[in-house]
Design brief:
Elements (H helix, E strand, L loop, with lengths): L1 H10 L6 H30 L7 H15 L3 H19 L18 E6 L5 E5 H10 L2 E4 L1
Antiparallel strand pairs: 1-2, 1-3
Helix pairs in contact: 1-2
């Protein structure tokens, strides 16, 4: 970049805009740097080797899967009955409901707020009243 700065200063003697030349040259320098990095990464990746597995290890895995599939009819029926009983137990769990003391106020609903100190009242949208209420200077009037 220092060399680039020096060459741009020389461009002013050629009656050219130094800033414009600096931008073009810096962009070209950036592109060449990115190209060099890409070439290095690709050469590193092509030089690498993937590990290979023996075919005997693969056949052993296939045999293990087949053994798991050989189940008796009684085992299958017992596992399905357990799954059904578990799902029935989950369905009977009570559902908690939220009970509000006051109805929920929408963000864009108009509300009346009252100043604690002066007693002044304002009618504003609830989303604008929230920060005033949190400060403690105003309270929500029902």
């Amino acid at each position: 970049m220092d060399d680039l700065k020096q060459s741009v200063q020389n461009a002013s003697y050629e009656q050219k805009d130094p800033l414009l030349i600096y931008k073009f040259e810096a962009f070209e320098l950036f592109k060449t740097t990115v190209d060099e990095i890409n070439k290095e990464v690709l050469s590193f990746l092509f030089k690498g080797e993937l590990p290979t597995q023996d075919t005997s290890q693969i056949s052993e895995a296939h045999q293990q899967k087949r053994e798991k599939l050989n189940l008796r009819k009684d085992d299958v029926q017992n596992s399905t009955e357990q799954a059904i009983s578990n799902s029935r137990q989950q369905q009977h769990e009570p559902v908690e409901t939220i009970v509000r003391e006051r109805p929920k106020i929408g963000r864009n609903e108009r509300v009346t707020i009252k100043n604690v100190m002066s007693g002044a009242e304002k009618e504003v949208k609830y989303k604008q009243a929230i920060p005033l209420i949190e400060k403690g200077e105003w309270v929500l009037k029902n």
